[in-house]
């Protein structure tokens, strides 16, 4: 799966490099998934060493125990997002002029 995602990322970067700013807004999430899958694969291979085997098992158990929390967190996040949409919450008036500015906006010298 990690290899397929990596190939997809390479194809997107090769053939659609001009349209990346407009059409492909999920590139950072794709890169994050690739890094997480690579980390999981490294943990799978490190498991054979006796000194790291226990650590790998503990990481696995911690991630499994975090699943209910993550599900509840995403559920609450979704519900509160819907509440903000229903209430028509607007951007704070003090920062409304910064609405279109991105974090990594290019500065002209």
Q: Would you give an account of this structure?
A:
- The protein has two domains: 1-46, no CATH class; 50-90.
- Helices cover 65% and strands 0% of the residues.
- The protein has three helices and no strands.
- The longest helix is centred in the middle third of the chain and has 37 residues, at 50-86.
- The radius of gyration is 20 Å and the shape is flat.
- The mean pLDDT is 77.
Strand composition percent: under 5%
Overall mean pLDDT stands at 77
Low-confidence stretches: none
* Helix content percent band: 55-70%
**Cα-atom radius of gyration:** 20 Å
Q: What is the general shape?
A: flat
Query: What's the total number of strands?
Result: 0
Q: What's the domain count? A: 2
**What is the tally of helical segments?**
3
For the biggest sheet, the summary is:
none
């Amino acid at each position: 799966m990690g290899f397929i995602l990596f190939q997809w990322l390479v194809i997107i970067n090769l053939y659609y490099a001009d349209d990346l700013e407009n059409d492909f807004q999920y590139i950072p999430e794709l890169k994050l998934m690739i890094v997480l899958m690579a980390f999981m694969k490294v943990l799978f291979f490190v498991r054979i060493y006796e000194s790291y085997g226990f650590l790998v098992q503990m990481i696995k158990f911690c991630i499994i125990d975090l699943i209910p929390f993550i599900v509840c967190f995403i559920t609450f996040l979704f519900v509160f997002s819907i509440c903000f949409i229903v209430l028509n919450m607007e951007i704070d008036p003090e920062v409304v002029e910064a609405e279109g500015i991105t974090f990594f906006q290019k500065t002209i010298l």
